[in-house]
Amino acid sequence: MHNGKLRYFTAECQLILTPEEYGIQAQADAEQEQQRAERLAAKLGELNIDLDNL
Q1: Domain residue limits, the chain
Q2: Is the dihedral of CA 14, 16, 17, 18 positive or negative?
Q3: Considering the chain, what is the average pLDDT of its residues?
């Protein structure tokens, strides 16, 4: 039991995400990667590096 719900854990006692939780986590990860890519593109732009001509 975890927070009043029956949940599954790995042998190392790590909580296994539900499909809904996994989707939320995947979306958050994708948003974080998008922000990282935008920061990198901005930095390369400051260095006058054109991403379209690499």
Answers
A1: 1-54
A2: negative
A3: 92
